[in-house]
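Morning F.,

Quick status update on the modeling queue. The single chain you submitted on Monday has been processed. Sequence for confirmation:
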Amino acid sequence: SHTPSPMMPNTPNDDDSDTTTTVISLSTVFHPGAHEIEPDTIFISSDMVLFYVHSQVLKAHSPHAFRRVFEAHQDTDKGTPKGFKSGPMESSVQDGLIRIPDTSSVLNVILHTLYGTSSAQHSPSFETLTIAVYRMPFYDLNPKACIVPRTPLYDVLLTHAPLFPIQLYTLAGHHDLQELAVATSSHLLSYPLSNLPEEMAERMGALYLKRLLCLHLDRFNALKHILLSPPHPHPVTRECNFTDQKKLTRAWALVAAYLAWDARPDLSTHSMRSAFQPLTENLSCELCNEGLQKRIKDVIVQWASVKVGLAYVLLMLLALR
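Structure tokens below.
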């Protein structure tokens, strides 16, 4: 996300035979000439990368954006931040620098968010994205206002949900990012809540922890309710009476008990079908077989709908808290 600029030698003392040089890099996106409007602010990250930005873009998200770092570099003579200049920038690069106490990778993500562009082209790690979000309040930026559906940072964060679901859910809970929490929750169905670190539980907050617990409990209860009813009996025939049909009912109950006992919130419809399908092998009655196949199909459809339904309920409960 940055390229080296020419070396800038420090002026050596007369009694110093060695010349000290410093390499300063430029952001590949936020550099002079990258935008139509001339930048009026220069940030330098902790790893010595320059970012040329526009004060009006920063203030559009928050009138106090980056106030802390501007105040740290305030011009004592004029009483105005050095980074905000009304005229052309000074020729000396160092005169207008605003030092940022974060790496270029973190600052790059934050600036891309403020400019409404995606940082995905730089392939930031999930750790970098997380740090950037947690650091936003330090720069007087509200993550809840910056991270909403159909925005670049929201989309980039969501791509990491399959690999880092509990970390992303914790991030969303900490900053009250409701939509991101709901979208991530579907990836937490296989997460063992007994392994949830205490630090994460505290960071996500009581509300989001409760929602996560309820998500798992509600799915368990829904599964038990779905499996409870066996196939409907059919009218007695010469080949199959009620006694014969009770054998199928008992077999169904055994499989249902097995699934309920060993159930996980992420139980797949394929596993469910595989558990019930062997019941059809010893059925000689066509009506029993039809009833069993219909019941298996109904169970699978109902279980598949639970995933969508609970995500919707979670969103509604969060919105109405």
